[in-house]
């Protein structure tokens, strides 16, 4: 499978590079001027305007962005291999069985045995995967100039993540294994149900209780922009009374915003990179997109879609666990699916399943992102602001991939697609008073 995937990866990347090179080269300054001029004419050339925005990225910047994003394709494969290696180390050396035995010697309560094992498992797997995570999350980010953290700061955030994982991961595993032991035949259905409940719970509390562990959230100072953001929220039925900003610049140079939370925890947030680098039009364009996720119920639809994937994943684990246990269960010291010593096997099988489902999960995500793009253009009415934001995002996302490449690897529409759609929207609204006014200001 490794070599087949490698060939597929190379073919997809080659197609993407060919497609990207097919776009005509445009001088950046001339292209921006062409966009402004086109906005003031009766005929608006969508392709010329799109190319004008694309030309704002220098060839060097595009080459770096393409290299970074294409490297991420291989990281999907390497993440799987690292997960399989960690699982093999725990199972093949019977270390997982010894961890279970240790927990059984401490207490006779099954739920507490599970908790003790879970703590060992989370700590040990974090340690084993640390060298890879340092490369992927720290070294590589600095190679491409995206991270703003030193090693101590990065390690501090990873320690916080470990703390959160120990609490929520241990509780989740205790409950899931209790369900597995109670429902011997249908454990995979009930286990999936419990997992979905935990995902929902975490998504509900994360904006208010988890996110502030990693960043400082403050109310956006009063300004005309804040008034416009809240007005846009009210107009679209979003129950938010404030707008927050957070200090993401302490971690990276990426721009971002979100309308997150459920069941009364809804929060509108934007990071300081977007505030500092973006114009008011860009901020409104991005937040219009994020509001689209809320209004279009993407959080709830996502829970349904990914809930189905979780159920399918548990079904795959049920089959894979039974097969692997028959072949190696005795050698690994596993006593059945209800034995916590088999957790590394379950983790490995889930990793394989999610790897194979990468195009599916990416397509689900990319589809909702495209819907939010369309909503945001209509809500914020800032096609140029949204296009400018897409250019900034393309500093670390490949701008113009091939169709197959985008289908397999992109969880958001490509920068070219987003800019092109924004220019199509603009072409259809050139006679609107506010769009005319923007064109006048630009000239």
Q: How much strand?
A: under 5%
Oligomer class: single chain
Helix amount, in percent?
over 70%
The Rg value, from CA coordinates, equals 24 Å
The rounded distance between the terminal residues' Cα atoms is: 56 Å
Q: How does the major sheet shape up? A: 4 strands, mixed
Overall form: elongated
Structural class: mainly alpha
**SSE run:** HHHHHHHHHEHEEEHHHHHHHHH
Number of strands: 4
- Stretches where pLDDT is under 50 for at least 5 consecutive residues are 1-41
Spatial arrangement of strands, main beta sheet: 1-2-4-3
Total helices: the number is 19
Mean pLDDT: 88
In words, what does this structure look like?
The protein has 443 residues and is mainly alpha-helical. It has a domain at 95-214 and 299-362. Helices cover 74% and strands 4% of the residues. It is built from 19 helices and 4 strands. It has helices spanning 2-22, 28-39, 46-54, 59-92, 95-106, 110-128, 130-143, 151-182, 187-214, 224-235, 272-277, 280-295, 298-332, 343-356, 358-380, 383-393, 403-409, 415-427, 433-442; strands at residues 217-219, 243-246, 257-260, 267-271. The protein has a 4-stranded mixed sheet, sandwiched between helices. Helix 16 (383-393) packs antiparallel against helix 18. It is elongated. Mean pLDDT is 88; it is low at 1-41.
Summarize the structure.
The protein has 443 residues and is mainly α. The protein is 74% helix and 4% strand. A four-stranded mixed beta sheet has the order 1-2-4-3, with helices on both faces.
């Amino acid at each position: 499978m490794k070599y087949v995937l490698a060939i597929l990866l190379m073919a997809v990347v080659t197609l993407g590079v060919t497609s990207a090179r097919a776009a005509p080269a445009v001088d950046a300054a001339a292209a921006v001027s062409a966009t402004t001029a086109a906005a003031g004419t009766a005929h608006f050339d969508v392709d010329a305007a799109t190319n004008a925005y694309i030309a704002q990225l220098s060839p060097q910047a595009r080459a770096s962005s393409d290299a970074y994003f294409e490297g991420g394709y291989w990281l999907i494969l390497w993440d799987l291999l690292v997960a399989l290696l960690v699982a093999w180390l725990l199972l093949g050396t019977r270390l997982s069985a010894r961890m279970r035995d240790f927990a059984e010697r401490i207490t006779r309560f099954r739920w507490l045995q599970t908790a003790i094992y879970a703590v060992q498992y989370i700590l040990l797997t974090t340690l084993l995967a640390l060298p890879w995570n340092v490369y992927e999350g720290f070294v590589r980010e600095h190679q491409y100039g995206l991270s703003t953290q030193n090693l101590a700061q990065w390690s501090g955030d990873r320690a916080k993540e470990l703390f959160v994982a120990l609490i929520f991961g241990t509780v989740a595993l205790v409950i899931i294994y209790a369900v597995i032991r109670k429902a011997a035949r249908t454990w995979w259905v009930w286990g999936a149900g419990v997992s979905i409940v935990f995902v929902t719970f975490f998504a509900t509390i994360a904006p208010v209780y988890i996110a502030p562990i990693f960043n400082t959230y403050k109310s956006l100072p009063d300004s005309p922009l804040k008034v416009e953001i809240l007005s846009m929220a009210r107009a679209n039925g979003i129950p938010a009374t404030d707008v927050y900003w957070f200090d993401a610049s302490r971690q990276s140079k990426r721009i971002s915003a979100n309308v997150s939370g459920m069941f009364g925890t809804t929060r509108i947030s934007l990071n300081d990179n977007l505030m500092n680098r973006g114009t008011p039009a860009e901020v409104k364009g991005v937040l219009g997109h994020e509001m689209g996720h809320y209004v279009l119920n993407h959080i709830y639809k996502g829970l349904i879609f990914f809930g189905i994937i979780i159920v399918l994943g548990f079904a795959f684990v049920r089959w894979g666990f039974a097969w692997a246990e028959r072949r190696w269960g005795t050698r690994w010291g596993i006593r059945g699916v209800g034995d916590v010593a088999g957790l590394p096997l379950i983790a490995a099988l889930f990793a394989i399943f999610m790897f194979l489902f990468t195009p599916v999960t990416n397509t689900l995500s990319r589809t909702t992102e495209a819907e939010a793009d369309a909503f945001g253009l209509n809500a914020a009415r800032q096609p140029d602001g949204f296009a400018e934001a897409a250019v900034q995002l393309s500093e670390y996302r490949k701008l113009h991939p091939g169709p197959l490449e985008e289908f397999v690897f992109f969880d958001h529409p490509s920068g070219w697609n987003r800019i092109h759609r924004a220019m199509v929207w603009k072409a259809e609204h050139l006679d609107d008073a506010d769009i005319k006014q923007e064109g006048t200001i630009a000239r």
